[in-house]
Amino acid sequence: MNSSRKGLRAAVLGVTVGGGLLSGLVACVPEPQQPLFYESMARPDAVVDQATAAQMISQYRANEGAGAIRPDRDLFKIALQQSEAMARGGSVKASLAKDMRLAKRMASIGEPETYAVENVSGGYRTLAEAFSGWRDSPKHKAVMLDPKAQRFGLATAYSPGAKHRVFWTLVMAGPKGPVAAQASDVTERAGPAPKPGS
């Protein structure tokens, strides 16, 4: 009887220790992370992952017969300026201000003659939502598929009190240098995207 109690104690101790070790191992397994294109931009510190955006837009362009694009730090900078202006104004209409015109912002980064186009919109929470909205809007789609584009910058700005909260700007540009097209093409832009859910 004494030996059976010792055996029972050893079994209980083994289960307790083993269970503790097992739960410790389970805690070490990392939780699966959601893809970056589903990350919410509805927060002040949010930054669009440029590599993810490049992959997503380049794949779409490849499917439609257009070349790949690569992230560009200067284009990101002027995209961010535009998004921040819209967030401050609480509206996509703020992008229409004279000082926010694309040609002026391109000149501010030393590329006054470089071909460039842009999309602006508000209301999308994630890159996936913005991409889908732009893909379904003929003018925004044309910017994403522009055959002259080789570089891009994509930025958001968050304004919690604004109707649309998250404001997006995508600037696409050709190689640095003189514009191969007419000057009017430089400031071409697609307007606000359709409202999410409409």
Describe the structure.
This protein has 198 residues and is an alpha/beta fold. 43% of the residues lie in helices and 14% in strands. It has 7 helices and 5 strands; from the N terminus they run ααβααβααββαβ. The protein has a 5-stranded mixed beta sheet, with helices on both faces. A hairpin with a 7-residue loop joins strand 3 (151-158) and strand 4. The longest helix has 27 residues, at 2-28. The chain is globular. Residues 10-23 and 181-189 have low confidence and may be disordered.
Short description:
With 198 residues, this protein is an alpha/beta fold. The protein is built from seven helices and five strands.
Please tag this protein with its features.
198 residues, five-stranded mixed beta sheet, 5 strands, 7 helices, globular, alpha/beta
